[in-house]
Amino acid sequence: MERTKVLIPILVLLLAIASITTIGCSSMERSTQSGYAYRYDDRGLPNTTSALDDRKNWEREGARSELGPLASEKAIALRQAVRREEKLLDGQQAKEMYYKARPFLKSDAERLQFLRLESEPARERFLAVRGVAGESVTHPPEIQDLIEQNDIAYGMTMQAVQAAWGAAERKEVAGNPMYGNQKWYYSEQVTSSEGYTTEHRTVIFEGGVVVGWETR
Fold first, then answer.
1. Nearest-CA neighbor of 62 among 54, 168, 103?
2. What pTM value is reported for the model?
3. What is the DSSP letter of 133?
4. How many whole angstroms from its chain centre is CA 197?
5. Given this model, what pLDDT does residue 34 score?
6. How high is the mean pLDDT of the chain?
7. For residue 169, what is the DSSP state?
8. Strand blocks (E) in the chain
9. What is the predicted pLDDT for the residue at 98?
10. Could you tell me which residues come within 8 angstroms of residue 81 by beta carbon, excluding any fewer than 6 positions away?
11. Using CA atoms, how far apart are residues 79 and 62, in angstroms rounded to an integer?
């Protein structure tokens, strides 16, 4: 009996401490810079709505950065949709097919159409209609003219550059080769006031297309 009388005050004290701790945690203000303010609500439960909004804002800013400050909201939304569908690609074969074809797809609308096709045969037919299926590639007339002049331009695919300049002497690959982020190195003998000299060229690809080059 005496032992019970001693235990009751102790239990009451423990319950009071737990209650104060709970009230303190629920009323505590979270810094908006800590990150927790967005991930948890006032009860300390995951705030999935805020987390989703943050992710959408992050994706929107990423798309805006890729497209430039003058991009329309429609273009930004389309790029976001493409990036989401790219992440949903399932299987190495599907990924390789898409990233090999991506430089030849002329717009985000065309890329999105390709990504939303449900089967590999449907995607193969889609590419065949555009002349980029298998190993054979049909270059647009303006690109074919550049190839015949042994010249290159922004936006040219790796296949077009190789057709214009031949195989690169050396290649540097950033990350997985599938994504088409590479540097190709060429050297060529050219005439100068001092006779012949070696000209070194570097072609820079991002996403499988030319984004710049250097000559020295």
1. 54
2. 0.65
3. S
4. 40
5. 42
6. 81
7. S
8. 170-173, 182-192, 195-206, 209-215
9. 93
10. 108, 112
11. 9
State phi, psi for 167 to the nearest 5 degrees.
Answer: -70, 140
Q: How many CB atoms lie within 10 A of CB 208?
A: 20
Edge-to-edge order in the sheet of strand 195-206: 170-173, 182-192, 195-206, 209-215
Q: What are phi and psi of 214, to 5 degrees?
A: -130, 145
CB contact at 8 A, 23 and 4? no
Among positive and negative, which fits the CA dihedral 27, 32, 34, 36? Answer: positive
For domain 141-215, give the CATH number. 3.30.1450.10
Q: Do residues 164 and 150 make contact, with C-beta atoms less than 8 angstroms apart? A: yes
Query: pLDDT per residue over 57-90, tens digit each?
Result: 888 899 989 888 899 999 999 999 999 999 999 9
97 membership: H or E segment, kind and range: helix 92-101
In the chain, where are the structural domains located? 72-138, 141-215
pLDDT digits (tens, 9 = 90+) for 5-30: 555 566 556 565 555 444 444 444 44
Sorted by sequence, the CB contacts under 8 Å of residue 132 that are 6+ apart come out as 101, 104, 138
- Phi, then psi, of 193 in degrees rounded to 5: -65, -20
Instruction: Give the separation between CA 181 and CA 101, rounded to whole angstroms.
Output: 14
